[in-house]
Amino acid sequence: MKLLAISGSLRRDSHNTKLLRAAEELVPAVMEFELWDRLKEIPPYDEEDDVDPAPGAVAAFRAAIAAADAILIATPEYNSSIPGQLKNAIDWASRPLATSVLRNKPIAVIGASTGAFGAVWSQAELRKVLGATGARVIDADVALGHAHTKFGEEGELLDEAARDQLAEVVVTLLAETPAQKVADPNLLGEQAREARSVARNVVAA
Ligand SMILES: Cc1cc2nc3c(=O)[nH]c(=O)nc-3n(C[C@H](O)[C@H](O)[C@H](O)COP(=O)(O)O)c2cc1C
User: How far apart are CA 21 and CA 79, in angstroms?
Assistant: First the structure.
């Protein structure tokens, strides 16, 4: 089983990328975690360029989404909305609309911002956009406000409540994956316990 994580920020020191790294620690061993770090390579969407073969980074992005059982996106908020580079990548991934790699894909949206509200408007708009693409948007969230105060020197998430919410997002997303739907429900119980116990241990450490 594979979880693809996408940060909407291009910054090396991004709080959203750190939030995804914190999620990685909570992902049960049964799930492979891949962080997509090529957002900057995706060109501006142009319908004239949306031909076969697609531009290299676009083809790689679509392939990564197709290979994932579930997706976790952490988005910053730019002027109360989705950063352009993230929206642009989703526009590429959404075509052709009827058969796109996003269709029916379980996706959870989380976000971090240095403002008080943790990118809630951006997250809401991203969920709307993903819904329009036919993705299966999961009802779970983390809104990490004042993000510049929430990580330690090693990038560890210091906010205990946020870590618990992150564990719930991971568990909820896992439960929605097609692979999990046919698996033993007891296994999900074990994975959920594993994610929650990792969350508690990291905070206690
Ligand atoms: C162009 C721009 C617009 C921004 N607009 C908002 C905003 O509307 N709300 C907010 O909470 N933060 C806003 N911020 C601050 C971001 O939350 C902050 O830069 C955050 O760290 C970006 O995420 P990152 O650390 O993952 O790169 C804005 C930042 C930039 C550069």
Answer: 25
What is the C-alpha separation between 205 and 199, in angstroms, rounded? 10
Residues 19/119, Cβ–Cβ less than 8 Å: no
Q: Is 121 in the pocket of ligand 1 (CB under 6 A)?
A: no
**Top-confidence residue, 139 or 201:** 139
Structure confidence by residue, pLDDT tens digits, 30-69: 889 999 999 999 999 999 999 999 999 999 999 999 999 9
Q: Is the pTM of this model over 0.70?
A: yes
Nearest residue (by CA) to ligand 1, atom 29, is 78
9 lines ligand 1 (CB under 6 A): yes
